Amino acid sequence: MPSEEDPKLFERTTVKGLRAVLSPRKSFDFSCTACGKCCRGPGSVYFTPDDLKAVEEHLGLDAAGKADLRGRLIQAEENGYYVHRAGGACRLLGSDNRCTVYPVRPLQCRTYPFWPSSFVSRTDLEALAEECPGTLKGKGRRYSLLSTARRVNKTRRQFLEAQKEPDEHFMI
Ligand code: SF4
Ligand code: SF4
Q1: What residue segments make up the domains of the chain, in order of their start?
Q2: pLDDT tens-place string over residues 95-133
Q3: DSSP per position, 83-135
Q4: Half-sphere exposure of 35 toward its Cβ, with a 13 Å CA cutoff?
Q5: β-pairing, 76-78 with 45-47?
Q6: Mean predicted confidence (pLDDT) in 29-41
């Protein structure tokens, strides 16, 4: 999660901004290699109440199973989100390195790496490329600057929508 002191957080992601942070590249490229690195933290995974319900249904949990899952998964609650701070690998990551709830994974996971915080500056983008082997390696699917901006702004809108008190500082 980005720092509250960063004034650029209040800016919407624009083609002009992306041109500056991606230069000299003229597009963004990404294809997931299924390495599982982004599920291994450190960091937090944010679940809306609906996300959590979908996970419980997907796993077919009874009342005891739900209580157990919530006990293992929820370390905090922030602005309408349940927060999973595993301190390492997400507890929903399987031993085969795959997400055990992939069809119902939360917004944060579905939208990675198209997060507002990844595109604020060149430094953020370099950190993303270092973390994710599927990003900016020239081998993945190409996204135009416009398409990238649209995806990132959609993530921003969706992440804000689930907040109790809409706050652009509270962003993935
Ligand atoms: S780090 Fe990147 S390549 Fe690896 S699983 Fe996550 S999105 Fe896919
Ligand atoms: S919910 Fe699934 S995709 Fe998201 S961090 Fe956990 S294991 Fe990874």
Answers
A1: 7-161
A2: 999 999 999 999 999 999 999 999 999 999 999 999 999
A3: EE--SSS-TTB-TTSSBTTGGG--HHHHHTT--GGGGSSHHHHHHHHHH-TTB
A4: 12
A5: unpaired
A6: 93
What residue type is 124 in one-letter code? D
- Mean per-residue pLDDT over the chain, rounded: 92
For residue 2, the model assigns a pLDDT of: 44
For residue 109 the two structure tokens come to 């996971």
pLDDT band at 1 (very low <50, low <70, confident <90, very high): very low
pLDDT at 9 over 80: no
Report whether residue 67 contacts ligand 1, using a CB cutoff of 6 Å: no
Pocket test for ligand 2, best of 40, 85, 90, 102 (most atoms within 8 A of CB): 90
Q: Is 38 in the pocket of ligand 1 (CB under 6 A)?
A: yes
CB-count exposure of residue 62 (10 Å: 0-12, 13-18, 19+): exposed
Ligand 2 nearest-atom number relative to CA 98? 7
Instruction: Give the residue whose CA is nearest to atom 1 of ligand 2.
Output: 105
Question: Would the CB of 92 count as within 6 Å of ligand 2?
Answer: yes
Ligand that lies nearest to the alpha carbon of residue 128, given by its number in the listed order = 1
- Which of 37, 118, 128, 130 has most ligand 1 atoms within 8 Å of its beta carbon, as the pocket-test mutant? 37
Residue 98 in contact with ligand 1 by CB distance below 6 A: no
